[in-house]
Structure formats: C-alpha cells, structure tokens
Design brief:
The protein is an alpha/beta fold. It has helices at 24-37, 59-68, 98-109, 171-188, and strands at residues 10-15, 40-43, 49-55, 82-84, 121-124, 138-143, 146-151, 163-169. The protein starts with 9 loop residues before the first strand and ends in a 20-residue tail after the last helix. The structure holds iron/sulfur cluster.
Length: 208
C-alpha cells in the first residue's frame, strides 16, 4: 500500500454536560480547539458534546486543554447524566424545573464509581414527556400532583413503556428511589443490564 493510500485514524471524545447545559468557558475552548485541530462537534442524543473526527495524534492535547477548562469526559463506570426537556423555566407547559432536578441527581450520584451499564435516566417537566422519560430505564415525569417515576422503559427495536412505580411523590422521594433502583441494579447485574429485564425479579423494590 502506498503511503498516500493509508487510512488516517480518527477518534472521538465526549464531554459530559449535566442538565444539558454547556458552560461558556467549555464552549469557548471547544470552539477554539475545533478551529485549531479541525474536528467536528456533535450534540449527542444523550445531550453530551461529542467531538468527532479527531486525529489520534491530537487527542491527548485536546483532552488536556479541555480538562484544564473544567470538562469532564464520558467513560466506563460513570453515573449516567439525566436527559432533560427544557422544563418549566423555559417552556409554558412546564410544571417542574428539569435542569435543576438533573443537577441535584448529578450532585448526589455523580461521584459514584464503577456504575454498571447500561441504564439511562430522563426527566420531563410535564406529562407531554418530550425527553422520552417513559421510554427510558428510569423516567421522571412532573405532574400537577408531584413526580411520577417510571422504570423499565426502552427504545430500540423492541421499545417498551416504563412501568409507573411511584405517583405524585416529592423530589426527595424521587432521589431516594433512584438510589434504591441503582443499588438493586448493581446487585442484579453482571456486565450490563437494562431495567426492563429486572422488572419481574421477585425482589424488585417497587410493587407499582
Ligand atoms: S415535557 Fe412538557 S415541560 Fe418539557 S418541553 Fe415538553 S411540553 Fe415543555
């Protein structure tokens, strides 16, 4: 193979964005580095910022500069960030501040280590459920009566609506329920497991 025929290896790097919010200093650094190194920027369906088409030889320099600006990167064992709709502060139909709740979930669980894959969390600010909360492993939906909690939803080739296990509860009860669910998931999971496969376990912690 001629040198000119060789495929240039590219890689990627994902910056985690709690609450789907991009801090201005990270946005500015990404913009600067994208200009310098010529990579692309993709907003993932999980509301993270994925830097794509990075030349492998540039990866360490890019990672170091972003880390210095405060970026945290997606990696194995990290607690998943909640996917959120825009919520009550910026949506006329909203009942709850989804971004604030996502931040509180991140504050409480974000430092957990060796979290087993692969469950996702979503929060919707009203029953319209724009963030797909009912199609997510742990789905939180704000209603006029409080928060509903759905478990076991999923997309993919065989989508499933999550089972409602709590209705009209407080934010504190939602946080405690997430802890209960995550510990149950950890006990029951070897390598990885969606919650839909655990709903019918005899010791599933909620009767629904
Ligand atoms: S789920 Fe409700 S609050 Fe959230 S964006 Fe949709 S309509 Fe607005």
């Amino acid at each position: 193979m001629k040198r000119s025929d060789a495929v240039r290896k590219m890689t990627g790097l994902t910056i985690m964005l709690p609450g789907g919010i991009v801090p201005p200093e990270i946005l500015a650094k990404v913009s600067e580095l994208a200009g310098k190194y010529g990579f692309g920027v993709y907003v993932s369906t999980a509301q993270n910022l994925r830097l794509i088409n990075i030349a492998e030889e540039h990866l360490d320099a890019i990672r170091n500069e972003l880390a210095a600006a405060g970026a945290v990167f997606k990696g194995p064992g990290r607690f998943p960030l909640a996917r959120v709709c825009i919520g009550a502060v910026n949506c006329n139909l909203g009942i709850a501040d989804t971004i604030a709740l996502a931040m509180r979930i991140h504050e409480r669980f974000g430092s957990r280590e060796k979290v087993k894959p692969k469950f996702k969390i979503a929060i919707s600010g009203c029953p319209a459920a724009c963030s797909g909360a009912m199609l997510t492993d742990i789905g939180i939906v704000a209603t006029r009566a409080g928060f509903d909690l759905h478990v076991g939803g999923k997309g993919g080739p065989k989508p499933r609506v999550g089972r409602r296990v709590l209705k009209g509860v407080s934010e504190g009860e939602i946080l405690d329920a997430i802890e209960t669910l995550v510990e149950f998931h950890d006990r029951k999971t070897g390598k990885k497991q969606r919650f839909s496969k655990l709903l019918d376990e005899p010791d599933f912690p909620f009767s629904g």
